[in-house]
Specification:
With 325 residues, the protein is α+β, with helices and mostly antiparallel strands. 47% of the residues lie in helices and 15% in strands. It folds into 2 domains: 97 residues, Tumour Suppressor Smad4 (Sandwich); 151 residues, no CATH class.
């Protein structure tokens, strides 16, 4: 015999904990073991509710004069009967239930990334990208050093940032393991690496745009919009592997998190500004060359050049005195 539908028992978050098949009517619901649907709730009566058809042939839930009554979802007024359609949710005691017919439409099937073949899921590709990001961080550190270049100075700050990246990816991988039962560490690491590459590219491009076009506040625009977009993309990518959320839900969640972070940053910056400042503001921006690209001169070479310049000046002075009458 074909099933008429199912009674679903929900938890506090609305997730289904149990489904009971309905093959015939009436259906009795309560705490007693003689019911078709047994509810383990001390606030539910032994015979609390019955589901049956009315005279018009529609399904209804009828309260059996229980102690704590029958309530429609989200309502606080007790009802004696409740019309049931596919998806109707109701409450008895402290337990939420829902009726679903066998024809109820289902959400699209989610793609299991654990079995989906992708080049980006390869650990070799992930290792290559991670190493490339580490080299990029070392290059930025090298170009920013104005003192004598040493290996320790070049790698110290990048290694700190790189360690934070690995920890960040590990936390998201742990969340993936808890929520979707897959440990997507390499994918989360690549997403974090992509965000670092994006931040670096935006920083460099905005500096040059503001240098070439000083009337455009490129740094401010990038700090507000560019950073917000990268943060949203970062959260969106992580949620794609750490949650079963749909794309639209992930997008709204990512935009909300990004907007909250940017909003707090703007408010903090505005609150920290002084009402009076003696620092002059200029529209022009000087863009010096990176320290590493400036050709260096040894001390001996500098002293030799200075001595030669001194000798030339002394010779010119003697020549000038000799030409005087």
């Amino acid at each position: 015999m074909a099933a008429l539908g199912y009674i679903e028992i929900l938890d506090a978050k609305g997730n289904v904990t149990e489904r009971v098949r309905i093959d015939s009517l009436p259906v009795h619901i309560g705490r007693a073991y003689s019911n078709h649907v047994v509810v383990d709730d001390p606030y539910v009566c032994p015979a609390h509710l019955t589901i049956e058809q009315n005279e018009q042939g529609d399904l209804i839930a009828r309260d059996l004069e229980s102690v704590n009554g029958l309530y429609a979802s989200g309502r606080s007024d007790r009802v004696a009967t409740l019309a049931l359609r596919s998806g109707t949710q109701f409450r008895i005691g402290h337990t939420s239930l829902r009726f679903r017919s066998v024809e109820h439409p289902l959400a699209p099937t989610l793609v299991d990334r654990g079995v989906k073949e992708s080049h980006f899921a390869s650990p070799h590709v992930a290792a290559f990208i991670v190493v490339a990001v580490l080299l990029l961080l070392c290059l930025e550190s090298y170009l920013g050093i104005v003192e004598r270049v040493t290996f320790a100075k070049v790698v110290s700050e990048p290694l700190t940032s790189f360690s934070m990246l690995l920890v960040w990816a590990g936390l998201w991988a742990l969340a993936s393991r808890i929520v979707v039962s897959h440990f997507y560490y390499s994918q989360h690491a690549m997403i974090a690496c992509g965000a670092i590459i994006g931040f670096s590219a935006l920083n460099v491009s905005s500096e040059w745009v503001e240098f070439l076009f000083p009337f455009i506040p490129a740094l401010w625009i990038v700090g507000l919009l560019g950073t917000g977009l990268i943060l949203a993309a970062l959260v969106y990518g992580h949620l794609g592997f750490a949650s079963p959320m749909r794309r639209r839900s992930r997008l709204w969640a990512a935009l909300s998190v990004s907007a909250a972070i940017i909003g707090v940053s703007v408010l903090t910056d505005y609150a920290g500004r002084s009402k009076f400042s003696n620092v002059m503001e200029f529209n022009g921006v000087v863009k010096p060359l990176d320290a590493a690209w400036v050709p260096s001169t040894s001390v001996d070479r500098f002293m030799e050049t200075g001595q030669k310049l001194k000798s030339d000046l002394d010779a010119l002075a003697q020549k000038a005195r000799a030409s005087q009458p």
